[in-house]
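User: quick one, sequence for these tokens?
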């Protein structure tokens, strides 16, 4: 069973991915994850996924853990200061330090679970792509990956690349979708698992799930909740792909939005709604 997707023209005239194609019933899906180092939020996704995934159905061949935002640390610190403000950035800083002192990191968690860690200066560099090509991967999964996947990387796995996005598509494409959904008064944050295309957050949708937002909520609670639930949603999607049950839905780009990192004025409006960051 081959399902048409929005994968785009990759490797010459290739216009479709093989998401949902036939696979031998006994074969395990060979997976690789690309993510960012985050010991507070993204790590909760991997806590759940590594603990619960069906080992008789999936083989995790590796994980690449990149630096957040793909920028110098001083720039990230300045970004966090502007976003959280004086007191909340101190609280987050203390949580970060405590997590580090406990040895909490996605890389350490992966090593504990026996998952190989693949270093990369950039996931789009030829030497990294050549390394992946030799691994006979079925799927690459992006979980808060800080780089846009270029065509050469998208073409590596047999069944394509998929992304876990905690926003309703195409309205909440881009960065920090949980924040923007809360700011705009959505009753729920929509977790979307979709096929990756060269255009950001524009590939076929494989599954969605709603996570309720309370009238006076915290971004901290909603992000943590969506990370946990997205791990379980991804497991269901991968099982459907392996069992040939996947039904990709083309994404209608009418009314598509795109969001960048929030500004101070956006945070002020967020707080006026009665929401908190922490």
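Assistant:
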């Amino acid at each position: 069973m081959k399902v048409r997707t929005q994968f785009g023209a990759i490797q010459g005239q290739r216009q479709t991915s093989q998401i949902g194609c036939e696979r031998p019933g006994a074969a395990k899906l060979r997976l690789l994850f690309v993510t960012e180092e985050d010991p507070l939020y993204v790590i909760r996704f991997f806590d759940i996924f590594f603990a619960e995934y069906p080992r008789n159905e999936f083989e995790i061949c590796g994980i690449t853990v990149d630096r957040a935002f793909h920028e110098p640390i001083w720039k990230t610190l300045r970004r966090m200061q502007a976003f959280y403000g004086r007191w909340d950035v101190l609280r987050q800083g203390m949580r970060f330090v405590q997590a580090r002192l406990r040895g909490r990191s996605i890389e350490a968690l992966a090593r504990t679970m026996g998952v190989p860690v693949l270093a990369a200066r950039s996931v789009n560099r030829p030497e990294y792509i050549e390394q992946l090509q030799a691994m006979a991967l079925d799927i690459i999964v992006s979980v808060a990956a800080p780089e846009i996947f270029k065509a050469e990387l998208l073409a590596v796995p047999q069944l394509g690349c998929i992304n876990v996005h905690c926003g309703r598509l195409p309205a909440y494409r881009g960065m920090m979708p949980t924040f923007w959904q809360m700011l705009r008064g959505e009753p729920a944050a929509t977790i979307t698992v979709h096929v990756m295309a060269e255009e950001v957050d524009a590939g076929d949708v494989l599954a969605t799930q709603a996570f309720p937002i309370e009238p006076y909520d915290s971004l901290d609670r909603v992000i943590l909740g969506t990370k946990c639930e997205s791990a379980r949603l991804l497991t269901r999607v991968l099982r459907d792909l392996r069992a040939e049950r996947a039904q990709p839905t083309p994404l209608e780009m009418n009314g598509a939005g795109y969001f960048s990192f929030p500004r101070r004025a956006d945070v002020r409006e967020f707080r006026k709604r009665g929401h908190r960051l922490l």
